[in-house]
Amino acid sequence: MSRLSSGVVLVTAQEPPLDPDDPGAPAGEDAGMTATAFLSVSLDPPLVLVSLRTGSRMDDLLDEQPLWAVSVLAESQRQIAGRFSMKGRVSDRLLFADLDCSRGAASGALLVGGALATLECRTERRVPAGDHTLVIGRVLTARAPSVEGGPLMYFRGRYRHLG
């Protein structure tokens, strides 16, 4: 599968508040994960799919939090992709600290500034698939700001750009 090139996205979600019954309870921390197994499933209704390693932090989070977002990374955002794909990494709070992000109105998840496109989603279905979970989300909002440059690609174990 390393011979199949794919785009690179950052999947983000915000942990639910510790006490969901208390409207004044602070929201949980933000979490992010680089993914290359992401695709459009349907235009009507608008559905997308992301494949998550079963038992990963993002898989566990999206099992309890139905709202999440996707930022389609530009070739200039290779460091962001690498930052959120490291094993044994530091806390997500530090990973987001110096990034240009805004909070999505529909999902509450962080959207990366400078991304080629952003989508906010609500989980429609989770499908166990071997050692992964396929999360199908309904697209609530989609934006494609005017950004220079091409997409960040992943091929043969390395980040690449179209040339």
Q: How would you briefly describe this protein structure?
A:
This protein has 163 residues and is mainly β. It is built from three helices and twelve strands, in the order βββββαβααββββββ.
Q: Please tally the β strands and state the result.
A: 12
Q: Give a quick account of the main beta sheet: strands, pairing sense, barrel closure.
A: 7 strands, antiparallel
Shape: globular
Strand content: 35-45%
- SSE class: mainly beta
Query: What would the average pLDDT be, to the nearest integer?
Result: 90
What is the secondary structure topology, with strand pairs?
Blueprint: E1 6-7, E2 9-14, E3 30-35, E4 38-43, E5 46-53, H1 57-64, E6 67-72, H2 78-83, H3 92-96, E7 101-103, E8 110-112, E9 117-129, E10 132-143, E11 152-155, E12 158-161
Antiparallel strand pairs: 1-11, 2-3, 2-6, 4-5, 5-10, 6-9, 7-8, 9-10, 11-12
